[in-house]
Design goal:
The complex is a heterodimer of chains A (577) and B (134). Chain A is α/β, with parallel strands linked by helices. Chain A is built from 22 helices and 9 strands. Chain A has a 9-stranded parallel beta sheet. In chain B, α1 crosses α5 and α2 packs across α3. The radius of gyration of chain B is 14 Å and the shape is globular. In chain B, α4 links the parallel β4 and β5. Classes of the chains: A alpha/beta (577), B alpha/beta (134).
Chain lengths: 577, 134
């Protein structure tokens, strides 16, 4: 540039300014127009022009472009394998959804067992392919419907369950050998499993043919979800008792659903979800091995449960990293030889914490994208949330739309035609690698603290998750992350959607029914069976056989849970924040 | 010179069996950072224990978080107990999943405000600050 010719520069600048001014005027017009349109639609103009933060939902920086430079030394044969082959990064089956779609498994449960039975049969009639049971909070905490602490909570967040009679009613007219049944229950999982086995036997079903899953993952309760009853060590012992018993007696049953879902819901990042979940899985494996079980006998029935959150590519990378890390851990650390032991099978559920009460119908769209992530990531079964779940339990209409979302994905979009369609993408492969590295970092941090139980006791997990949750809220409050209807694109009036109401009479009826059972059963039989249960707990034998006997005697959830607490003691999570 | 006001004291608690504590812990940190004196009582608190702590800690505000739908059972009991002990000058706020119709009823019973999912920390801070020391 010639500094002695300022006029030339100025004129050049002038013309640049003119062009910029023209462009600015253009933008002004566009913005004014869109503001008018927004006002017309009753919307306030918000932070629409804000810069995106260029990070994932979990706060991981993302480059504008990924090229082969970021995948130095990438060896697809070794790192990915082919679908259906070690380390299963690309999927656990060779042809994935071409042969068999994922199971569409919608979580349901409310009111009394007969109410949920009706919903189950409705869902099966809508061509849902598996059942998933939500229990109410008293049941999740091992309390009966007539306990004072259960007041106001019976049948509210799930179905009420007090005795084996309730279990029989819950699955009335449903063939338990042909229907795959999942049950979400943790601290009293072994009690509920006993009820299920006892009910199945009463109806003449063969335990060896029962198909389904019990969540039975107590570790994530200590980290995140807080439904705990016993201290960590006896809690894990009960998990292992169930694994041991079902491996022998109900070999098609998935004995644990090792869950990252709740860890993520409590506010963790994607890589924390991945790392903590696999670490939990490793802890169960170690405990089973200590009991002299053979890894290839029980490992094929360990299953996983992950969250499907908003950030599509981060989620896909998470599922792919999970499969490959688990395969390596099983083979290299635990000496698994069978392929089934190394294959990480997982259920996914769209992220409840991303649903918003504002403009609730927008939740349908969030759920659809999240479901797409789960399917592109190769899930084996999927729950799609209903749009009304930040307001109440799903109405029949909302639950149907949630299921239809999966059916559109499966039958209309074409995503099922090819296996691992994102495999080989520079971006997705880089992120899959990064996820694995971060997870290994957390494994080292856990080992440094003396392992799982020590880390639970020193509050490590809860601290890590609370930090991440707070950072996310701060980003939303600062509008660094925009949420439709919450801190952007608000609407003056939300269109109301119909909400399911739980009738308070349900609680009264359930309590009455429980009292009737308590009045007609054999008090001696109950006492004897609970004594047997305490004895088994005390002398470290497997408690499940004694629990099945107690179930047959109509011992209640609370009586069984308390008998175990008599031996194990009780636990209260710390109030640190 | 403005006279420095004493920080407001806030007791936060979960009542009933509900274990969802992500929100209340985020609120606890947010209020602390905004200069409030925060006491978090933790999970599974009985109504009696919460009211006892309200009295002993001499708080300006009591914040209760409920995401399990039991609010119409638990909050009236809580308000009765506060009233019975003469703690009528303590402001009560409720957080969680509370539908609009229920929010209206709770406010008629004496709850000062409800904050649902999507409420920002600032909105809670602004509300408490605008009410001043109680």
């Amino acid at each position: 540039m010639d500094c002695l010719a300022p006029r030339g520069i100025l004129s050049e600048l002038d013309s640049t300014c003119d062009r910029l001014f023209e462009r600015w005027l253009g933008w002004e017009r566009i913005l004014a127009f869109s503001a008018d349109r927004q006002e017309e639609a009753g919307m306030e103009q918000t932070a629409v022009q804000k810069q995106f933060s260029n990070t994932t939902v979990s706060g991981e920086p993302v480059n504008a472009l990924y090229t082969s430079d970021l995948l130095k030394g990438f060896e697809p044969e070794l790192e990915l394998g082919l679908p259906g082959h070690f380390p299963y990064t690309r999927g656990i089956h060779e042809s994935m959804y071409r042969d068999r779609l994922w199971t569409m498994r919608q979580f349901a449960g409310f009111g009394r067992p007969a109410d949920t039975n009706r919903r189950f049969r409705f869902l099966l009639a809508q061509r849902q392919t598996g059942l998933s049971t939500a229990f109410d909070l008293p049941t999740l905490m091992g309390l009966d419907s007539d306990d004072l602490r259960s007041a106001g909570e019976v049948g509210r967040l799930g179905v009420a369950m007090d005795t084996v009679d309730d279990m029989l009613e819950l699955f009335e007219q449903i063939n338990l050998e042909r229907t795959s049944v999942s049950m979400t229950i943790n601290a009293p999982a072994i009690v509920i499993m006993a009820f299920y086995l006892a009910a199945a036997r009463t109806r003449g079903f063969d335990w060896r043919q029962l198909r389904g899953t019990i969540q039975n993952d107590i570790l994530k309760e200590f980290h995140a979800q807080n439904e705990v009853v016993y201290p960590p060590e006896p809690s894990v012992r009960l998990v292992v008792d169930l694994i041991e018993f079902c491996t022998r007696q109900a070999p098609k049953w998935n004995t644990v659903s090792i869950s990252g879902y709740h860890i993520r819901e409590a506010g963790s990042t994607a890589s924390q979800e991945l790392a903590f979940t696999l670490a939990d899985g490793c802890h169960y494996v170690r405990e089973c091995l200590k009991r002299k079980m053979k890894v290839d006998e029980f490992a094929p029935r360990l299953s996983f449960f992950f969250n499907a959150h908003n950030d599509l590519f981060e989620e896909v990378a998470k599922y792919r990293a999970a499969r490959s890390l688990w395969a390596e851990l099983m083979r290299d650390e635990f000496g698994a030889q069978s392929e089934a032991s190394c294959k990480l099978r997982f259920h996914a559920q769209t992220a409840g914490c991303t649903l918003q009460a504002q403009q609730p119908q927008v939740n349908l769209i969030r759920v659809a994208y999240q479901a797409l992530a789960a399917v592109l990531g190769g899930c084996q079964s999927l729950h799609t949330n209903s749009m009304d779940e930040t307001l109440a339990l799903p109405s029949e209409h909302a639950a149907t739309l949630a299921l239809r979302t999966q059916q559109v994905l499966a039958y209309e979009t074409g995503v099922t035609n090819t296996v691992d369609p994102l495999g080989g993408s520079y971006f997705v492969e880089s992120f899959t690698r990064r996820m694995k590295d971060e997870a290994r970092g957390y494994f080292r941090a856990l080992a440094d603290q003396g392992g799982m139980i020590a880390a639970i006791e020193n509050g490590y997990f809860r601290r890590e998750i609370a930090e991440a949750a707070f950072a996310q809220q701060r980003a939303i409050d600062a509008e660094q992350r925009l949420i439709v209807g919450v801190n952007a694109f608000q609407q003056a009036e939300d269109e109301p959607i119909p909400i399911m109401e739980i009738d308070p009479a349900i609680e009264t009826a359930q309590v009455k029914s429980l009292r009737r059972i308590k009045g007609t059963r054999s008090a001696d039989g109950v006492r004897r069976s609970l004594d047997e249960l305490r004895k088994a707990a005390d002398d470290r034998s497997n408690v499940l056989p004694a629990l099945v006997e107690a179930a047959d005697e109509r011992a209640t959830v609370q009586e069984c849970t308390q008998a175990l607490a008599d031996v194990f003691g009780r636990f209260r999570p710390s109030a640190s924040w | 010179m403005h006279e420095r006001t004493k920080p407001q004291r806030v007791l936060l608690a979960k009542v009933g069996l509900d274990g969802h504590d992500r929100g209340i812990k985020v609120v606890a940190r947010g209020l602390r950072d905004a200069g409030f004196h925060v006491i978090y009582a933790g999970l599974w608190q009985s109504i009696e224990a919460v009211v006892q702590a309200t009295q002993e800690e001499d708080v300006d505000w009591l914040g209760v978080s409920i995401l399990n739908g039991a609010h119409m059972t638990l909050i009236p009991q809580l308000l009765d107990e506060l009233h019975r002990r003469g703690l009528t000058d303590v402001g009560v706020i409720v957080g969680g999943i509370i539908r609009e119709g229920d929010q209206k009823k709770l406010k008629e019973m004496g709850v000062q405000a409800c904050f649902g999912s999507g409420a920002s920390i600032n909105s809670i801070v602004d509300f408490l600050s605008s009410c001043g020391n109680r």
